[in-house]
Structures are given as structure tokens and as C-alpha cells.
Amino acid sequence: MLATDENILARAEDWRKSGKGVAIATVTETWGSAPRPVGSHLVIDDEGNFLGSVSGGCVEGEVVTEAMDTIADGKPRMLEFGVADEAAWRVGLSCGGRIRVYVEKVV
Amino acid sequence: MRFDVLTAMNGERAARRACVLVTEMPGGDQRFVKAADLASDPLADILEASLRTGKSGMVEHEGRSYFLTVQTPPARLLVIGAVHITQALAPMARVAGFDLTIIDPRTAFATLERFPDVTLIADWPQEIIPTLGLDRYTAVACFTHDPKIDDPGLEAALSADCFYVGALGSRKTHGKRVERLKEKGFSDEQIARIRAPVGIDIGAVSPAEIAVSVLAEIVLSLRKKPLRADAPQRAGAAA
Question: What pLDDT does residue B235 have?
């Protein structure tokens, strides 16, 4: 089924209830042409399963990797992606925009 | 995010109540504010403004930065009339993310064969609508052509300030409808909110094409136009 904002956070709750480690990634700021609006969520479990999106699929892989680190150490992370930061990050947004993504563990 | 906060947010969503999660940046301290508790929050004015627009975002207050995760109830579509257009609209509305309910007291129309996997209620709108709790996050589209069935839906939608109110019918049919609503005491401003003829003009002919035009108009009302409470200026522009 297509993931909507309605069921993404509900899934995070279900995963946590079933004992999994869970992180929530949220788009907090965008500049220029960004594919998903501020407030969009991606939820990730400790096996790397994920639901939702923070971009058009460009940076989800990187966010999932960082989220698994957050699940492991409990520390929130602020990630930034975009063409301006290609040197700093392994992936960027092909659309030319820039986004900031906050990743936090469900505790 | 604390698990109890996540659970509370999901609970508010299920109950169709708005709420805001306030996260202080960069620290990450969080508090969860229900719409009903906004007034007593230190950020009350900012939070109220964010709920009106429904948009999440960063805000500054007294030298501190906060991210607001704004959660408004999911957009809901109530269709009066289990007609041919509705058969086309139902799957489209579901893919577009609307929570869909169909009401038609005519049991020949309201059958599971015609509407699989949809919330379908074979009863009179005036009996059912009071139990649904219409709100400004609800769209109402009336497709039966029958005033006995459509009018109670329209009246409820206007009274509840639904973000979209549409009714199928020619200009002549709509003219009669306007007269009936006036007799019931609805103001010109309220009546002008009804989209009729229904749907944006894409030259739609078939039921499925009309469904596309209606769904497009609903999305336009949801995303492009301010919600009803913020758009009193629209009254003057209406024909």
C-alpha cells in the first residue's frame, strides 16, 4: 500500500511496540527545488526497513544509514543534503535543491 | 522522540484533532501540544498561526530555534450519491490519500458490488452526517441530483465550514438549489462557497473524467486556497 503521512508515524509506533529500534527522520528545512515539503517523514527500523520519504529517493539510502547509527547510539543527527555539499556528503539531490533532515530515535 | 509522544500524536490523528510537536534545535528537547491546550503554551501565537496554515517549519522565539511538526487531521472526502461518477472517484480519491466515505440511502446504488473496499453507508445523509463530525478538513461532494438527498449534505457541509463543498448540476439546477438554501437561512457568502457546476473545467465528458475534474478541484481547494477560516475575502469574488 502507498505510504501516506497518516500511516508512516503509525508504523513507527507499531515497530516500536514490537520491540524494534526505531528512528524518525523529518525534513526540517528546504532551499530551492526540494522534492518533499518540510515536515515529511521517513521512519526506519533497526534492520534498515523504512517507510515514507524525505526526497525523491535521492538521499533515503544515506538517511537510513545515519538513522541506524542513531538507533544504535541514541544521539539525534542533523543531516544536510544538496549540490552545495557534494564534497561533504556521498549523495546529493539531483534536482539542485538543498534539504536538512533531523534524525531522532524513538525512546 | 519519546514513545508516549509518538503514541499521542497518532492518537490525535486518529481522533481528527490537530496538534503540534515542538522540538528545540539543536538540542532536541521536545514537547507535544494539543490544539485544545495551545492557549497556555509559551509559543501560543506562533503555534496557532502554524495550525492555521497546516505547515511544519522552523521558527525563532526569544533567541531560540524550534522546529514545529504540525499535524492537522487527514483530509477526508464525503460523497453523497453512490453514482457512476463516484465509482470512478472512489479509487482515485484513495490513491490521492483521502479518507473516503460514501452515503446514499438508495440501496440499489449503495451496493458492495459497485463499491468494494470503501466505507459505504446506505442511509439518509441527515441521519448519518451528525455522527461523522464534519470539520474544516473535510470535503463534501454531492452527486445525486436529488434535493432530498443532496441538500442535507450541502447544508451540513456549509454549517461545518468544510474546505470544499461541491454539487453536481446545471446552472439552472444550481439556481433552484440557491433559492432553497436561502429559504433555509444560509447567507449569500455561505452559498457562494458551493462549487457548481462541480469540478474544474477540463472539458470532462465521461464519469471518470468528471471524477478527475472534481478531485482536481478538491486538491486545489486543499492546497492552493487558504482554508475557509482564513479566506473571508472570497465571498466578495463569488458570483
Answer: 40
